[in-house]
Predict the 3D structure of the following.
Amino acid sequence: MLLFAASLLGSAHCVGMCGPYVAMCTAQFVPRGATPTARFFLRSVFNLGRIATYSLIGLIAGAFGQIVLAFADHLGLTGTVAIAAGAAAVLFGLSLMGWIRDPARLAAHAGIDRVLRAGRTRLARSSPMVAPLFLGMLQGWLPCALVYAAASRAAIAGSAGMGALTMLIFGLGTVPAVFALTVIPHTVVRRVKAQRLAGILLTLLGIILICRGLASFGFIPSAVLW
């Protein structure tokens, strides 16, 4: 629930990070003169592509995390995994609040975003039905602190399926702002100052995960929240 609320509020952050990309994609896959129904359908397909990528990220994170959790459990260090995931969530939460620099920018500086944007140019030449789906899937891989924080939670979901479900819920929370971005000017959407609250929720989620890890070691008592 905290993750969905954080993604819903933090999707305003997506406007700042991915706004130009989404605007360019929309201009390419929505033909001029398209009916309102056609525009809605194409934009929905674009968002479906994004959510598919997020679910895939969750699947990978959940599968990898399941292996790590099993290994940590064998060594009696399960709490360490929860503490690490919580620390990551806190880190990205603080970045959304503007207290520290966005760690996702490291991936951007590495050239990942340029590679993905080059792929956008090629995919834009695909058929009108395929382009929005794959452009949305490509957008899902863009470096984003919000996505990384959600993936850290998916990593301790317990299984690949639960990891995918975690990221699916996260993706659904981002739909309103990104969908609005394809309908109204992103300069208007960016005025919604909700990402700080999203950062607070992510930080709270991280603290809960850290407490869960500490409780497993017996450093603090167990509680309903963790």
